[in-house]
User: Which sequence fits this backbone?
């Protein structure tokens, strides 16, 4: 039984900048490092929980940035956590949602830390708190985003040869449709049947470009087209699905359970990318999964290029479902030059092993945190 007098004694946030192993070229930004906010909550019984929130390229992806997330946590959410008697994860998150509008990424970091602490307190993994683990390992793809053909081909071949990844997502959208499709087709030809290829346009195409590009990509043997249109263009996405040329996946459009339900009703996607930060938390991501799964759509585990903290939180959730037929992209710890957790993650045989220890199953290396924090 939990201590009825349990309180939160301390809330700490760290804004870290970790370099990437190479420039990561997206339609809207080129990343040479990733910035993330790490949250640590300490309870009166001595247990601690860690969480994370990050975005892609500051404000180039969405309405929250690492800097604004840290401010929100420090100025608005921390006082709520410190002033209230702690009852449960659900009660705490309900109170925060009642008092804080929007700010899904910041809320997700809090819920993540609360679940991590609860897992440590009870001696079970977060996956057990979320319903129970079905899978111990998750399929993980690699994103090719150097922007250079020979580099991408060499990178893909090395991943296949080492049995680390054999499914590849290629980031496009900065060049013309013809140039992008030529780039993607050349990579697919080079790796042949040894690997599967998907593309992500990150909202960069118009409807006309998407209609044309979808057919060209299908002809090149590409298996999936992700978020070709701006996130608000539901009618355009619906039209692409109706063409039946290539499976359409929505990502940036999927902003929580209510939006996911509206998208499903509109038949706006064949596949939905699930991101715990974008959904607003682990429990809300569960709801998005349920909505998509029960509609008959495919599921895919997405990333915001997080550190191992949020990556493993997502893995804990995804492991409680057996329906992620399109796999996951929980590769981002491998994109970062260094890690600030004490444990080594197991990426092998094209999969990630989900940690089994209490809570998230990982812990912070404080010296590394101090080294990378601003």
Assistant:
């Amino acid at each position: 039984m939990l201590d009825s007098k349990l309180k939160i004694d301390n809330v700490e946030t760290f804004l870290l900048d970790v370099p990437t192993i190479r420039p990561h070229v997206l339609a809207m930004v080129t990343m040479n490092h990733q910035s993330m906010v790490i949250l640590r909550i300490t309870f009166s019984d001595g247990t601690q929980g860690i969480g994370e929130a990050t975005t892609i390229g500051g404000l180039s992806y969405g309405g929250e940035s690492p800097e604004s997330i840290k401010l929100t946590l420090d100025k608005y959410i921390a006082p709520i956590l410190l002033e209230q008697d702690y009852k449960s994860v659900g009660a705490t998150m309900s109170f925060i949602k009642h008092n804080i509008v929007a700010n899904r990424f910041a809320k997700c970091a809090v819920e993540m830390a609360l679940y991590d602490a609860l897992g440590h307190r009870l001696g079970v993994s977060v996956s057990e708190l979320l319903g129970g683990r079905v899978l111990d390992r998750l399929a993980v793809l690699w994103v090719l985003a150097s922007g250079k053909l020979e580099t991408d081909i060499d990178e893909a071949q090395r991943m296949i040869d080492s049995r680390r990844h054999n499914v590849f997502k290629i980031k496009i959208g900065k060049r013309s449709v013809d140039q992008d499709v030529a780039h993607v087709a050349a990579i697919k030809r080079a790796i042949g049947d040894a690997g599967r290829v998907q593309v992500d346009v990150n909202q960069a195409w118009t409807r006309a470009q998407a209609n044309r590009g979808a057919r060209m990509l299908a002809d090149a043997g590409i298996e999936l087209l992700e978020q070709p249109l701006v996130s608000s263009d539901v009618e355009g996405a619906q039209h692409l699905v109706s063409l039946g040329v290539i499976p359409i996946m929505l990502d940036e459009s999927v902003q929580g359970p209510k939006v996911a339900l509206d998208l499903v009703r509109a038949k706006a996607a064949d596949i939905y990318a699930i991101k715990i930060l974008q959904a607003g938390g682990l429990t809300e991501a569960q709801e998005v999964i349920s909505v998509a799964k029960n509609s008959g759509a495919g599921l895919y585990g997405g990333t915001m290029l997080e550190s191992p903290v949020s990556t493993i939180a997502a893995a804990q959730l995804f492991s409680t479902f057996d329906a992620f037929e399109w796999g996951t992209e929980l590769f981002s710890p491998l994109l970062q030059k260094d890690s600030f957790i004490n444990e080594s993650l197991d990426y092998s045989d094209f999969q990630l092993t989900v940690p089994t220890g209490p809570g998230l199953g990982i812990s912070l290396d404080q010296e590394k945190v101090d080294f990378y924090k601003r």
Observations:
- Residues 207 and 290 are 29 Å apart (CA to CA).
- The chain has 14 helices and 13 strands.
- The chain has two domains: 8-123+366-372, 129-353.
